[in-house]
Amino acid sequence: MSEATVTLEAADILKVLELLPHRYPFLMVDRIVDMDGDRSGVGIKNVTFNEPQFQGHFPGRPVFPGVLLIEGMAQTAGAMCVAAALGGGRPSVVYFMTIDKAKFRKPVVPGDRVEYHMTKLKNRANMWWYRGEAKVGDTLVAEAEVSAMLVKD
C-alpha cells in the first residue's frame, strides 16, 4: 500500500468502532484526536473503576494493567492506519505483530485519562511500525514501539 490517501482529524467512539473489531471489555480507546492520516494521532482512554480488570488487579488498590496500556497504543495506531490505508473501511484482519522497548513508568488508576501519543516510524506494504507514549496529563506512564499487519480478503 502506498502513502496514506485519507486524512481524518478525529474519530469519535462510533468511528473507532467502525475501524476496529474490538468491543467491550477489550476496547481500550474511546476516541482519537489530532489525527494526521496514519502519521500521528492521540488516542484517549477514560479509565473507570467499573471496568472488569479492577476486580482482580488489584482488590483494594486498583491499577490499570500495563499490558492494556500497550493494547491501547496498538489500537490507536491500528485505527489510524486502517482509516488511512483503506479509506475508512475495515480490513478482514489486523494482526498485532511486535512490541519493543516497552517501559512502564507510573501506575494508572481509575479516574485517570490516558492519552496514547502515537507516531509512525515507517510503513512498508501492509505493515506499520509506531512509537507510542502513554501519558496522564503531562506525566509519561508507559512507552513502547509496536507494529501491526493489515490483511484484506
**Structural class, from helix and strand content?**
alpha+beta
CATH class descriptor: Alpha Beta
Give the strand content.
35-45%
Name of the CATH architecture: Roll
Number of helix segments? 2
Tell me the distance between the termini. Answer: 15 Å
What topology, given as strand order, has the largest sheet? 1-2-4-5-6-3
Helix and strand succession?
HEEHEEEE
Low-confidence stretches: none
Would you tell me which CATH topology applies? Answer: Thiol Ester Dehydrase, Chain A
What integer value in Å does the Rg equal? 15 Å
Domain count: the total is 1
Characteristic terms for this protein:
153 residues, alpha+beta, 6-stranded antiparallel sheet, Thiol Ester Dehydrase, Chain A, 2 helices, globular, 18% helix
Describe this structure in words.
Helices cover 18% and strands 39% of the residues. The protein has 153 residues and is α+β, with helices and mostly antiparallel strands. The protein has a single domain, classed as Hotdog Thioesterase (Thiol Ester Dehydrase, Chain A), CATH 3.10.129. The chain has a six-stranded antiparallel β-sheet. The protein is globular, with a radius of gyration of 15 Å. The mean pLDDT is 91.
